[in-house]
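Troubleshooting entry. Yesterday's outputs looked truncated, so today I'm pasting the complete records for two proteins to confirm everything comes through intact. If either block looks cut off, that's the bug. Protein one:
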Amino acid sequence: MIAATLVQHPRYVDVGDGRWDENAAFIAMAREAVPRLIGEIRRLREILDSRGDL
C-alpha cells in the first residue's frame, strides 16, 4: 500500500484519484491507530500465554 500526500515538490509520487486530503487523514490516523493495535495484540497474547495450553 502506498499513501501519498501533496507536500513534496517536485512531485515524486502522484496518485491517480487526487485524494490528497484523504491520504493525509489516513496517514495521521494510522500513526495513532497502529501502535494501539499492536498494544492490543500484545495484551491478548499475554492473556493467551497466561492460560497455557487449552
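Protein two, checking that the full record survives here as well:
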Amino acid sequence: MTAPTTLAELTGDYTLDPAHSRIGFVARHAMVTKVRGAFNEFSGTVHIDGADVSRSSATVTIKVDSIDTRNADRDAHLRTNDFLQVADYPEITFTSTDIKQTGEDSYEVTGDLTIKGVTRSVTIPLTLEGAARDPFGNNRVGFEGSTTINRSDFGVTWNAPLETGGVLVGDKVTLEFEISAIRQA
C-alpha cells in the first residue's frame, strides 16, 4: 500500500505517538537568552475529516510533572506554586474548537488551552509535514507548528527583578509542536 497523498485519504482517527512527537516551549531568561524545554508525557487524539476539514478535531493532555528543561533545579521550581503548581493542576489540556485550512498544507487549529485552571482560546498554525506507512504497517501523519502565549494570562506570574533592569523570566512563551500521529484501525 502506498502512502496517502490527499487530505481525503488521511480521513480517520489518530493517536499521538509520544515517542516520535515533541511538545516544547521557549521562554526568555534574564533578558539575554532563551530557555528551551519540553513535556515528556502527553497523550492526544486527532480526527481528520478530509471532506470537510472544519469537522476535524484534536485533543491533547500534558502531564505537567513531566516538564524537562535539562536542569533538575529549574524543573523542580517550575513545578511549584511559583509557576505551574503541579500539585493542584497536574495537567495542561487543549481541545480544538475550530480547524481551518489556510493553504495547500497549512492549517489553523483554534481551541481551548487550559493551564492552572485558566482556559483561554489560542490558535496554532500547523503545517502538514507528510504522511507515510512506517515499517511496522502504521499509517502516520506529521504536523509541525508553534504559537506564542502570555504566561500571565494563565496565572503564571512569578518573576524576579534584575539588578540591571528587566525581569528574570519573560512573559511570552512560545509553544512548539512536532506531532507524529498513528491512524487507528
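Both blocks look complete. Sanity check on protein two: The mean pLDDT is 93.
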